[in-house]
Amino acid sequence: MTIFLFYKFLIVPGGAERLIFEEYKAFKELGYNVKLVVFGYKESALFGEKIHEDIISFNQKSWFLSIISFITLLKNTPHSVVISSSGIVETFFACTLAKTKYSLHLHHPLTMNLDTSKYSFFLKNKYQYILERSCESEKIEQRRKKIKFIEYFYISVRQFLLSLSIKFSENIFVLSGYAKDEL
Q1: For every one of its 183 residues, what pLDDT tens digit does the chain have, with 9 covering 90 and above?
Q2: Cα separation of 40 and 46, whole Å?
Q3: Whole-angstrom Cα distance, residue 45 to residue 48?
Q4: Pairing with 136, which of 1, 105, 113, 118 sits 20 to 30 Å away (CA)?
Q5: End-to-end Cα separation, the chain, in angstroms
Q6: How many angstroms separate the CA atoms of 96 and 167, rounded?
Q7: Do 131 and 109 meet the contact criterion of CB atoms below 8 Å apart?
Q8: CA–CA separation, 58 vs 161, rounded Å?
Q9: Which residues of 97-115 are buried (b: 16+ CB within 10 A; e: fewer)?
Q10: Judging by beta carbons within 10 Å of its beta carbon (0-12, 13-18, 19+), is residue 66 exposed, middle or buried?
Q11: Could you write out the DSSP letters of every residue in the chain?
Q12: 18 and 47 in contact (C-beta within 8 Å)?
């Protein structure tokens, strides 16, 4: 069996990135064939680990071509599983189309960034709760007032896809109390 650890863009070393390397080493020690799958990475984000032979980078010019490459990899690797720490929607698309099981790591709330799900139509009932627990509530409100309809539509569709991604995941590893509150 091959385990693909997916991290959309491995470009800045941090806690989530450290976790993926610890998982990589643990699975290797257990005898699994493990590969890191990314849409792009920087050497500085590898924590000095010499694992280039186990990194599959779809450094394509477009998101669509990267997804096609990911799907192709999964279809050509039967009995594989994906553990995704970043790129939940991309994992959902690729694994669904390739009929591959996947699990998700939720490191922080999906609504953490200013330009994400918190503005979604699907989360309008949770918006006040999200606002109250944020230390940037003023910025969030200012941003909300500037959102154009097309952005609102995009954010809502993305939130819908995130919800489907979580729903169809084999396992969900929640690494934050705030992320747990969103489930």
Answers
A1: 999 999 999 998 888 888 899 999 999 999 999 999 999 999 889 888 889 999 999 977 899 999 999 999 999 999 999 999 989 999 999 999 999 999 998 876 655 554 566 566 556 676 677 667 676 778 777 877 887 888 878 878 887 888 899 899 999 887 665 555 555
A2: 12
A3: 8
A4: 105
A5: 30
A6: 12
A7: no
A8: 22
A9: ebebebbbbbbebbbbeee
A10: buried
A11: -EEEEE-SEE-S--HHHHHHHHHHHHHHHTT-EEEEEESEE-GGGGTT---GGGEEE---SSHHHHHHHHHHHHHTSTT-EEEESS-HHHHHHHHHHHT-EEEEEE-S-TT-STTSGGG-GGGTTTHHHHHHT-TTHHHHHHHHHH--HHHHHHHHHHHHHHHHHHHT-SEEEE--HHHHHH-
A12: yes
Q: How far is CA 77 from CA 64, 66, 106, 114, 133, in A?
A: 20, 17, 25, 37, 43
Name 105's bridge partners: 173
Structure tokens at 114: 């200013």
| Residue whose structure tokens are 């799958």 | 37
Amino acid in the structure at residue 67: I
